[in-house]
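Check out a protein:
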Amino acid sequence: MLAPARRPRVGFILITAMLIVFYAAFSLSNARLMLIAYGQHAGAMDREVLLAQSDYARFWYAGRQLLAGHGLAAAPSARVFPVDITAPDAAAATAWLYPPTMDLLAMGFAWMKLPLSFWVWRAVSLLLGAVVLRWAGLSGGVILAGLASLAAQHDMQGGQNGTLLGAVLVAALLLAGRRPVLAGILGGLLCVKPQIALVLPAALLRLRYARVILAAVLMVAVLVVASLAVEGAKGWWHFLMVQPRDSHIVTSQAFSVFFPAAGITPFYMLRSLGAGVPLAEAVQAAVSLVALVLVWLAWRPGVMRDVPRMALSCSLGVLAAPYGFSYDLVAFSIAMAALFRLAGEWQRLILAFLWLMGGYTITVAGDTGLLLFPLCAVCGAAIAWRLREAG
């Protein structure tokens, strides 16, 4: 006798429908925005400066300025870039806010013309991201889900660094217990954007592996020395003395004027709820401290398996970072995808929602005026803790 056909489970149907509909809608909208940006620039400027309105142009400009200073490339066109965003007296709203170690990365792509450089940067980000995630032992499906996530698409639109650095963060967290030297090297590379890696010191120091700590410290030292050789001490003086002032000026503006719809941190959530800057900063500091303490506790050997521990750390990293946007959620998206295989049916529904929110947090903020992603980060951390022994 033939066995009766199994009816599709409700959870599976909901997950599939949600992923297909919302992923397709966001992807089409993101592609449309990129085409609009391309078309606007094609009509306004010659083809050598397409995409100059994007975040990537700032990255390219910083690298190009350094190359030009050493006689290795022509200076950026004053017609296209009328303001020197790297100058100490640059307006806060336009100032370059990254450490000199990021400038080293920018130099590696700024020798090409801007349009070509943009697409090479995107290809390299995806390729290197996939490579380090494979080193970390993640499956092809998880890697694809992370690097094609909505957060990664938002990162693609502006040419930001979230895809590459998010993959490096995830790999460093997964490799810390198995390949400590490689994990330390990868972790040290994240000094190009320190706020994305605040959880790493708490995690790596908790392991008490001398090799992982030494490798990370040496990698940071190499990059700092290289940046001093390229820029001199003035780059670090600007980063440590001028940029904090510029950041404070920008974030202290009235929220009706400065509304970063892609904001993801508790600071931005408090500001969207009407809190003033002092209160939002105080709450952010308290949340950051609690998040780092929880990472420290979770990384005690034997408490959590590798994948849930990584996912918990990425989720708490969102809460710990004082400054972050949707394109910084690629690590979180990879983490949610990695948990999917370990979760039960209804947990998978929540994980699918959280994975989508890497992009839709912008839509929610635009429609409601509220930046609520920290609640998603808390939810992701809670599921990771529930699955701490899975895998």
In short: Residues 26-386 form one domain. Confidence is low (pLDDT under 50) at residues 1-7, 42-52.
